[in-house]
Amino acid sequence: MDLSRRRSILIAEDNLDLATTLSLLLRMLGFDVAAVNDGRDALAIARSRRPDVLLLDIGLPGLDGYEVARRFRGDDRLKSVLIIAHSAYPPDTGPGRYDERDFDHYLVKPVDFRTLLPLLGEPG
């Protein structure tokens, strides 16, 4: 990570209220934040912005969070991004194809901000 810039977080969340609230809170703490509401947009924005962290909802339209994570891991430009999944479903009961290699962390909603913050690192 380039220490001369703020730590960058991409939020991929289809709940607009949650995405907006998280974005505001993280910006107030000093992070550089972008938010999208669709899996395809997450990939497009990530390729241009190269975030340090992807906060990834599993139930996204377009491409679900599982597929977004797989594509990040398969892209040399994005494979080192820290991926924090957050879902209403625990990983072992959710309606998807959970593979722990796709995510660095998996949090169940509602996510406690005190749990999330240490995973994000310092704003920069």
Molecular structure report:
The protein is an alpha/beta fold. It has one domain (8-118): Rossmann fold, CATH 3.40.50. The protein has helices spanning 16-28, 39-49, 65-73, 113-120, and strands spanning 8-12, 32-36, 53-57, 82-87, 105-108. A 5-stranded parallel sheet has the order 2-1-3-4-5, sandwiched between helices. Helix 2 runs parallel beside helix 3. The model has no long low-confidence stretch (mean pLDDT 90).
Features:
about 120 residues; alpha/beta; Rossmann fold; five-stranded parallel beta sheet; 4 helices; 5 strands; about 35% helix
Instruction: Point out poorly predicted stretches.
Output: none
**CATH 2nd-level architecture:** 3-Layer(aba) Sandwich
Task: Please state how the strands of the largest beta sheet are arranged side by side.
Answer: 2-1-3-4-5
CATH topology: Rossmann fold
Shape: globular
| CATH homologous superfamily descriptor | Response regulator
Structural class: alpha/beta
CATH class (first level) name = Alpha Beta
Strand content bin: 15-25%
Tell me the distance between the termini. Answer: 10 Å
Average pLDDT reading: 90
Number of domains: 1
**Major beta sheet summary:** 5 strands, parallel
- Number of DSSP strand runs: 5
Helix amount: 25-40%
Output the number of helix runs.
4
The helix-strand sequence is: EHEHEHEEH
Summarize the SSE layout with pairings.
Blueprint lengths: L7 E5 L3 H13 L3 E5 L2 H11 L3 E5 L7 H9 L8 E6 L17 E4 L4 H8 L4
Parallel strand pairs: 1-2, 1-3, 3-4, 4-5
Helix pairs in contact: 2-3
